[in-house]
């Protein structure tokens, strides 16, 4: 696929997630995937979404864990860059910890690999200390 097509796959994924359409977001995730949001061991597992996911179903659990604990308030993409099968996104988000009501806000980078119209690898990088502080 072309770089533009890969960008469209990633944009469809993010748009579905933004609408709360998790099935739509998962529709462009491969059945076997290498998905990692910062894998951080926290006291009392305060960030349960922070785990390695290897299947599309496990990515679905990532979204369930994330939404059960964090309430998104803003999600903004600043830049999208594609090279070959990689799409790099830079952005910022803001949310609130459901357990404490405290907010967090940070910049992030995502690196997604797209093959045959499906996301096969995802890495999400952000300041976990910012998020963790909202949960304690």
Provide structural commentary:
The protein is of the alpha+beta class and 136 residues long. It has a single domain (3-135), classed as Roll (Nuclear Transport Factor 2, Chain: A). 32% of the residues lie in helices and 44% in strands. The protein is built from four helices and six strands; from the N terminus they run ααββαββββα. It has helices at residues 3-18, 22-26, 56-69, 128-135; strands at residues 29-36, 52-55, 70-83, 86-97, 103-115, 118-126. Strands 2-1-6-5-4-3 form a six-stranded mixed sheet. A hairpin with a 2-residue loop joins β3 (70-83) and β4. 20% of the residues are buried.
Primary descriptors:
Nuclear Transport Factor 2, Chain: A, 6-stranded mixed β-sheet, single chain, 32% helix, 136 residues, 44% strand, alpha+beta, globular
Quick summary:
The chain is of the alpha+beta class. The chain is 32% helix and 44% strand. The chain has a six-stranded mixed sheet.
State the low-pLDDT regions, or none. none
In the CATH hierarchy, the third-tier topology is known as Nuclear Transport Factor 2, Chain: A
CATH domain class: Alpha Beta
User: Shape from CA axes?
Assistant: globular
Helix/strand order: HHEEHEEEEH
Total helical elements: 4
Q: Care to count the β-strands? A: 6
Mean pLDDT: 92
Helical coverage, percent range:
25-40%
Q: Structural class of the secondary structure composition?
A: alpha+beta
- Shape-level CATH architecture: Roll
How many separate domains? 1
Spatially, the strands of the biggest sheet line up as 2-1-6-5-4-3
Largest sheet features: 6 strands, mixed
């Amino acid at each position: 696929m072309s770089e533009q097509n890969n960008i469209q796959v990633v944009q469809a994924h993010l748009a579905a997630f933004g609408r709360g359409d998790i099935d739509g977001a998962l529709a462009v995730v491969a059945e076997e995937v290498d998905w990692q949001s910062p894998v951080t061991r926290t006291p009392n597992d305060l960030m349960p979404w922070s785990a390695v996911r290897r299947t599309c179903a496990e990515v679905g659990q990532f979204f369930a864990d994330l939404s059960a604990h964090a309430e998104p308030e803003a999600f903004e993409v600043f830049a999208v860059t594609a090279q070959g099968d990689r799409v790099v996104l830079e952005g910022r988000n803001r949310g609130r910890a459901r357990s404490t009501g405290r907010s967090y806000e940070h910049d992030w980078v995502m690196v997604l690999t797209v093959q045959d119209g499906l996301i096969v690898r995802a890495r999400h990088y952000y300041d976990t200390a910012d998020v963790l502080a909202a949960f304690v």
